[in-house]
Amino acid sequence: MIDEKGILFILSGPSGVGKGTVRKSLFEKDTDLRYSISMTTRDPREGEVDGVDYFFKSKEEFETLIENKKLIEYAQYVGNYYGTPKDYVEQQLESGNDVFLEIEVQGALQVKENFPQGVFVFLIPPSLEELKDRIISRGTETEELVRNRLAAAKEEIEMMDYYDYVVVNDQIDRAVDTVQSIVRSEHCKRDRVAKQYKQALERDES
């Protein structure tokens, strides 16, 4: 019996590219992927459940986890911490479950440092013009903020070299199909399968 461990998949890309939409659509389809639950120090919103929507922690608990290197990545937004718990991800992978993480570029680079065996997927817009239209169509940003976000997006797109795969988000369904193909192909990679076979053979011989 081959003892197959799960794989950590990281979906990232510039702000406004549609990461959340692709992730949501992916999980609406029949998928065995486990979504990595984030940890936060912010208060639960109405209807949110600990261990389902987020792992809710106090600031002190969170900072202890940072000190003990128990987070794959973390960041601070508007006075609250957000991060990805290492133990939860490792437990899921050990159980043979694939874990899916949707995250900003800076967070993905932290994951790359702490978890280099992950599979990194970069979502890009069909063009910068299209990205600009998406940011403007949200209708929540001022002209200056749109300019700033576009400048940041250009910088983030230059970080594409850190990733294993690049997926163009021109149509949601097509992007989701491509991500599913990546998941399937990663399980068929020779080095991954060979390693599992050799471990199984060693167990049989002992």
Task: Compute the separation of the termini in Å.
Answer: 14 Å
Q: How many individual helices?
A: 8
Biggest sheet: strand arrangement: 2-7-1-8-9
Number of domains: 2
| Alpha-beta content class | alpha/beta
Element order, helices and strands? EHEEEHEEHEHEHHEHH
Reported for the largest beta sheet, the result is: 5 strands, parallel
- Going by CATH, the homologous superfamily of the largest domain would be P-loop containing nucleotide triphosphate hydrolases
Strand content: 15-25%
State Rg: 19 Å
Number of strands: 9
How would you state the average pLDDT, rounded?
86
Stretches with pLDDT under 50, minimum 5 residues? none
CATH architecture of the largest domain: 3-Layer(aba) Sandwich
CATH fold title of the largest domain:
Rossmann fold
Shape: globular
Overall CATH class of the largest domain: Alpha Beta
Helix content range: 40-55%
Family: Belongs to the guanylate kinase family.
Subcellular location: Cytoplasm
InterPro entries: GK/Ca_channel_bsu, Guanylate_kin-like_dom, Guanylate_kinase, Guanylate_kinase_CS, P-loop_NTPase
Protein name: Guanylate kinase
Provide a short characterization of the protein structure:
With 206 residues, this protein is an alpha/beta fold. The protein is 46% helix and 18% strand. The strands form 2 sheets. The protein has a 5-stranded parallel sheet with strand order 2-7-1-8-9, sandwiched between helices. Strands 4-3-6-5 form a 4-stranded mixed sheet.
